[in-house]
Specification:
By secondary structure, this protein is an all-alpha fold. Helix content is 85%, strand content 0%. It has helices at 3-13, 15-41, 48-83, 85-92, 94-106, 109-138, 142-162, 167-187, 189-192.
């Protein structure tokens, strides 16, 4: 058995373990290690404002790459369908055209709303994890890197576990976690502000 079929068989036979290891842990290790590299490169830019900017930038880039491009693509197809559907149909073929129509028709305001909520949660997670990783690098405390990887893993795995309960339940729980990360980010300001040294008594 080759590697690809074996991997696919493992994923289908153990979906939750696959989600935990591949969708959760490996994604956490990859992204948080990338943040470590970023923190090491930004030796002169490790203030609280820099941390917030780094995390926000990472989150927004993911929003654009994960959700933005997909919706832009579907929007462009929808516009083409409204202007000249015959040309689009002849270019794509009937089968492909049917699939695209199904995709476009499946997009509802409710789906867009929950997609926005999901991205808000993800951005807040990215920002807080950036604070954890930068603290790990600046203060040489590996525990905070481990916490960032664990938190990333939990978020991704929770999405898989909660989805069978419905999109609303899943996204509301993740939003609660995201808001907790936002609160943690506000509390993390003291990690990067210089400590005031008390003046010596005369």
């Amino acid at each position: 058995m080759s590697a690809v079929p074996a991997f696919a068989s493992f994923a289908s036979g153990h979906p939750y373990l696959y989600a935990l290891v591949v969708g959760g842990l490996s994604a956490g290790l990859f992204e948080e290690t990338a943040r470590v590299i970023g923190a090491l490169c930004l030796k002169k830019h490790r203030s609280y404002r820099d941390v917030v900017s780094f995390g926000l930038g990472h989150g927004i880039c993911e929003v654009l790459s994960v959700a933005g491009l997909s919706y832009i693509s579907l929007l462009s197809v929808a516009l083409a369908l409204n202007t000249d559907p015959a040309v689009l149909s002849s270019a794509l073929g009937e089968e492909q055209m049917t699939l695209i129509l199904q995709q476009v028709q499946s997009i509802t305001p409710v789906i867009v709303f929950w997609a926005v909520i999901e991205r808000v949660s993800a951005v807040l997670l990215h920002m807080f994890n950036t604070a954890l990783v930068f603290r790990a690098v600046t203060q040489k405390k590996t525990l905070f890197y481990v916490l960032a990887v664990a938190l990333h893993t939990v978020f991704n795995f929770a999405a898989v576990l909660l989805l069978p309960l419905g999109v609303a339940v899943c996204e509301l729980v993740l939003l609660a976690g995201g808001l907790a990360c936002g609160w943690g980010l506000l509390r993390a300001r003291s990690w990067f502000e210089p400590k005031e040294v008390p003046a010596a008594a005369e």
